[in-house]
Inverse folding.
């Protein structure tokens, strides 16, 4: 298992002492965030030309299952990530970070965890992938409703990389 993240950092989420039987509820939606689901890493000091690309990476998919109990919901996720070597790669690996964040209502982020990931390009491999297992626990919100809870996954990238993604989205 990759890690367990206890997400109890916000005033909006408090643990409930409810002793009633847990209800069968759908899992909070989990998915990649548009605009930070992919990245292009360029050679330091180079431009944004194709020949300057060290690697590209993207989140391919997010799958989740959950189990509710009286304290909240436990979510087990498989996050599939892929990287591809570029012509400027000399390290033979893609070093990147991805995040898992909890949103309780539009723009109300209650927790975020950042994970480091190294994907080695062994032998002649130009493309590599991994499935990261991430387990999180989300306490029951004060209003006892998980209706506004979303789990957001993205690559931890710079503002310049976000802008590059915007400019190249249609390509």
């Amino acid at each position: 298992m990759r890690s367990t993240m206890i997400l109890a950092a916000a005033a909006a989420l408090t643990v409930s002492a409810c002793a009633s039987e847990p209800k069968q509820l759908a899992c909070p939606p989990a998915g990649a965030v548009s605009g930070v689901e992919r990245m292009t890493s360029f050679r330091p000091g180079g431009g944004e030309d194709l020949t300057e690309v060290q690697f590209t990476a993207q989140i391919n998919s997010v799958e989740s299952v959950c189990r509710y109990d009286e304290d909240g919901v436990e979510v087990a996720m498989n996050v599939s990530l892929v990287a591809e070597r570029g012509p400027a790669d000399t390290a033979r690996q893609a070093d990147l970070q991805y995040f898992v964040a909890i949103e309780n209502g539009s723009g109300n982020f209650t927790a975020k965890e950042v994970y480091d990931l190294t994907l080695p390009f062994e032998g002649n491999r130009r493309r590599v992938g991994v499935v990261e297992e991430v387990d999180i626990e989300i306490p029951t919100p004060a209003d006892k409703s998980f209706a506004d809870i979303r789990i957001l996954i993205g690559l931890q990238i710079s503002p310049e990389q976000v802008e590059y993604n915007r400019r190249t989205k249609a390509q």
User: Anything to note?
Assistant: Helices lie at 159-168. The longest strand covers residues 53-69. The mean pLDDT is 86.
